[in-house]
# Entry
Amino acid sequence: MSVASHLAIALDEYDARIRTFIPDYEEMLHVAATVIGATRPRTMIDLGTGTGALAAAVVLRAPGVRVVGIDQDPGMLALASRRLPPRASLVHDNFLTAPLPPCNAIAASFALHHIASRRAKRNLYVRARKALDPHGVLVTVDCQPSALGRCAAEGRRAWRDHLAVTYGRAKAVALLRAWAEEDFYMSLDVELHLLRSAGFTVDVAWRRGLFAVVVGQT
# Structure
């Protein structure tokens, strides 16, 4: 399913609408891009690159970086091509099976919640670990709720309230219900365990409510 179909929006609305869907979206991208940019990467793979928002933010901090953006939605890749430098390589493929070339950094922004199983996600992290050079980083931005029921419930309420500002309470509830039918939100402790088991040293660079920026270093 395309991103436009999944979110029930037009593709050219994505960059504006994602901010109404996801609380603190800009702040999370800023943190992720700052972490990656500080490593001065020569090559960065962007998994599920979408419109290239995170990759473009990294380019601002590391102007010499070559971006390899992988996405299976051709419409999103077309938008990314307008945003990213000509040297960027945009690959129409599924990042779960696409070859991952040698690199210094790997990023994923609101892409990995489409992975349905822990095994598939760990396999991706193992492949990512092999692609990264020593001292490389993997940075993910996503919905990664608490394993504690009370904390997770409070996070869901905060997300609903954010959506309700733009769409009203009933629509907010409907959106969350629809997304939950296709998205797989693994808890933060599971994410950290999977990264460690794939050989990464991990840290949480940012966390608020259901959302987190997680860093894995080789």
